[in-house]
Amino acid sequence: MHLEHSQEVVAVKEYTGGKSSSNRVWRGCAGLIIIIGLLVLPRLVEPTPLAAQTCTQPSDQDIAMTFCDATHNDIAAEYPGLYDVNINVVVPPIILKAMGWYETWESRFSDGGGWLQCVNGRPVTSTDSCAWGLMQIWTGMNCDAPGSQFSAATQQAVKYDYRYNIAMGTYLLVYKWHERRPNQWLGDGSPGIAEHWYFAVWAYNGWGKKNHPNDLDFHRVYPIWDNPTTYPYQEVVWWLAAHPQHRTNGPDLWSPVNLTLPDRSLFPSSPYDPVGYFPDPLPTHRDWCRNCLPLVLKNYHTDTYEPNGSFGQAWPIETGTYESYIWHATDKDYYKFTPTRSGAIHVELHNIPAGCDYDLYLYNGAYQLIAQSTHSGNQSEHLESWVSPGNYYILVKSWGGSYSQTSPYRLHLYWIGKATAPYPPP
Fold it and tell me: What is the value of pTM for the model shown?
């Protein structure tokens, strides 16, 4: 979707500090809690360029967890790719998940379904190479108007980092909520109700005739999964919400939510711009991320960031949060952190499963122990240390042979003295 009217472009620039805010083909939306007072979407802080030029497709578990974190106002603390994305919202995740699947569902991307960031080591892109990644981001990318494009570093992050791609999609989605709500709203306009995002979902893919439910171009050929383009974008998103998708012989990737479409007979056929209040499509639904995450985790009990059982196999990490498991009694998880500047870091180990006792250790580049935290039981562990440019290693291991293959621990690494941990470290 691309903004089609000059006044809309001006509005976007007011929200994004000069970057026009649009997306391309097939867009979706999710829920929001409005902070009292004037809400203005802040800009994404642009990252330094990523070194890697090979795009690695993330696991469905990682994608699902990032969607859930992107629906909250804590995403900067949850995943390093989502730094400084403060959108002041809580979004019903079912629409984001359905939208993300639809964005790369077409056979031109893969016959294996949606949720694609990479194919054959390259970022997924549209046929005209204008929309990129899992959320098919068009805004600010290489086909956007001159002067409205993001920096090369931000474009690279959108293309190669699925977390940043999802963050950008959520960021643009929330803008659509703000853009449409003064003119169109359902019920009391509560962002906590998924159905109330109907107009924002419509606008995310393209406002006006393009997705008007009464447009005669939409023949609604059944079955919808074989003929999605015969339906307005938002109706396909609603259908996907109620029909969880999966990989071949794999588990469902989300719990079904039977979202209710508004009565399209209430919308005028012309002009293509319904304005004002419309009654609630009943029943309505609330859907919160922490309620849907356990289903995904239950379906994907597998150790992560493996192999990482030695210094030589240490998994490279940035500042941010990582979830993994102590998979067996002698399992050890090593992580490698390579700061490019000096400063104080804080390392925390949370969510240690009940009945388990995990400890936390920090080593320098010579494999010398420089800090540790070894509380008893499943108390959280934390340590602080001054670091300089170079390699450091974090070790998580069990005391007494305790482990869990069903409950992950959470490792959090951040710079001390910053409200939001930067990624990558400056």
Answer: 0.59
